[in-house]
Design goal:
This protein is an alpha/beta fold and 264 residues long. The protein has seven helices and 15 strands.
Length: 264
């Protein structure tokens, strides 16, 4: 029991730079307190003492603001940061080295008996306010962004954001351990997450450039056939392409916020 407690305290130092001492973690971290209440409630639940288990869980929720059903299965080195408003359902399964932030819900979407809640693989991070709903599988090392709503399975190492949740990234380089700081993304926010707005603008610019080239080619062919003389077409100078490759690069940089901002 004490070995598990030492693991729980150690994982707090690995994932929360605000932690200063073991005594502070032991006495002032509601995520750790909720986990200890759950372990007692889960043991009672497995013995068939369901009412006693629910009362222990209810007491833990009253003291910590974190609701974990006694039937939920939680692995080792589980960390709930801040914790207020976290809800974990009865049939939820959480692997080792997982991290949840405040406002996270691992909920069900059915009133039927049986598996109703999600399963989280090892080393999963779920950002603040995210909702993971239904009997879906979240692969190991996945990252769920803050306030995302996930109702479909997520592959290993993927990053999901938005409502409904959409994949924006695939697995990075192999992570040897959760103790490696480069392998932990606070709030499920990856540093290399693409900007969907900048991506959409880049796609539009690429399409416009292709259309400009086609229009230039058409103007040149019409000039060769002399059509501009018959139909009194404007001079060919008006058909020349104004946007250049350098201009497109400048526009893309401005859209992604990397370029210099013009002076007022």
């Amino acid at each position: 029991m004490f070995d598990r407690l030492k693991e729980d305290i150690a994982c707090v130092f690995e994932r929360d730079p605000a932690a200063r001492s073991q005594w502070e973690v032991l006495t002032a971290y509601p995520g750790l307190h909720a986990l200890l209440f759950h372990r007692l409630a889960h043991r009672l639940w497995l013995r068939g003492w369901h009412w006693s288990a629910r009362m222990v869980s209810h007491l833990g929720r009253w003291l910590t603001g974190i609701e974990i059903h006694p039937g939920a299965q939680i692995g080792r080195r589980f960390f709930i940061d801040h914790g207020m408003g976290v809800v974990i359902g009865e049939t939820a399964e959480i692997g080792d080295d997982c991290t949840l932030y405040h406002g996270v819900t691992l909920g069900g979407t059915s009133w039927q008996k049986g598996k109703r809640h999600p399963t989280l693989g090892d080393d999963v991070v779920v950002g603040a306010g995210a909702k993971v709903l239904g009997p879906i599988k979240i692969g190991a090392r996945a990252r769920i962004g803050s306030n995302a709503v996930v109702v479909k399975a997520v592959p290993e190492g993927a990053t999901v954001v938005g409502v409904p949740g959409r994949l924006i990234g695939t697995e990075k380089a192999h992570r040897a351990s959760i103790a490696d700081k480069m392998g932990f993304d606070a709030y499920g926010a990856t540093q290399d997450a693409p900007d969907p707005v900048a991506h959409a603008i880049n796609c539009m610019l690429d399409h416009m450039h292709v259309m400009d080239k086609r229009m230039q080619s058409m103007c040149e062919k019409l000039k060769e056939l002399g059509v501009e003389e018959v139909y009194a077409a404007p001079p060919m100078e008006s058909c020349e392409i104004v946007s250049t490759e350098e201009e497109l690069v400048r526009i893309r940089s401005a859209a992604s916020g990397e370029g210099e901002h013009p002076k007022p």
